[in-house]
């Protein structure tokens, strides 16, 4: 028997949190100002688009290896918004019960990565640039890097 995996979600302006049914996530529509022929401007403001005060930003590029994998962890408390500012990649989300894949290929829409959400990034285009806005400074103690530990922590939280 084969288990069917749902088709990856495509980011469009019409998309709502209803279609993104994995828990602790959400769609973030940024303010977009097309300035043709002088390029486009995309804006993220705390309170308006980002549901937390931004304490840290980091960006990822040079994703030339087809087989590159990033993420593969959850955070205990950190809140983040991830956006593909150039190129494309695939974002895999797992709340411990439900899994969903999203094709990240627009700078206009971000995805909220809430606490206790397992996430993996793959299928990077060579020109892919990822920006992440985070609610706190880097803290390795906030990471859960083992999937078994992630599931056990969720089970303990349900029992408590
Ligand atoms: C996340 C996803 C979306 C730091 O020292 N400071 C930092 O702010 C960051 C982000 C990383 N690092 C160090 C920690 C590791 O030794 O850089 C190394 C690589 O980090 P990591 O393996 O966590 O990178 P990714 O791309 O797998 O994950 C990153 C973020 O770390 C993570 O919080 O949610 O992007």
From TrEMBL:
Stretches assigned to the Sugar 3,4-ketoisomerase QdtA cupin domain: 24-153
Superkingdom, taxonomy of origin: Bacteria
Pfam families for the chain: FdtA (PF05523)
Name recorded for this polypeptide: Sugar 3,4-ketoisomerase QdtA cupin domain-containing protein
Entry-linked InterPro entries: QdtA_cupin_dom, RmlC-like_jellyroll, RmlC_Cupin_sf
Species assigned in the record: Candidatus Blackburnbacteria bacterium RIFCSPHIGHO2_02_FULL_44_20
């Amino acid at each position: 028997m084969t288990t069917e995996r749902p088709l990856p979600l495509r980011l469009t302006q019409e998309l709502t949190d209803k279609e993104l049914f994995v828990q602790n996530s959400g769609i973030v529509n940024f303010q977009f100002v097309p300035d043709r022929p002088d390029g486009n401007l995309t804006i993220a403001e705390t309170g308006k688009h980002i549901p937390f005060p931004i304490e840290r930003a980091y960006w990822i590029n040079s994703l030339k290896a087809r087989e590159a994998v990033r993420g593969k962890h959850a955070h205990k408390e950190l809140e983040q918004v991830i956006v593909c500012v150039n190129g494309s990649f695939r974002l895999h989300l797992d709340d411990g019960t439900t899994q969903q894949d999203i094709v990240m290929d627009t700078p206009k829409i971000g995805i909220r990565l809430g606490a206790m959400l397992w996430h993996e990034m793959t299928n990077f285009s060579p020109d892919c640039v990822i920006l992440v806005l985070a609610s706190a400074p880097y803290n390795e103690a906030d990471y859960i890097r083992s999937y078994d530990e992630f599931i056990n922590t969720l089970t303990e939280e349900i029992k408590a």
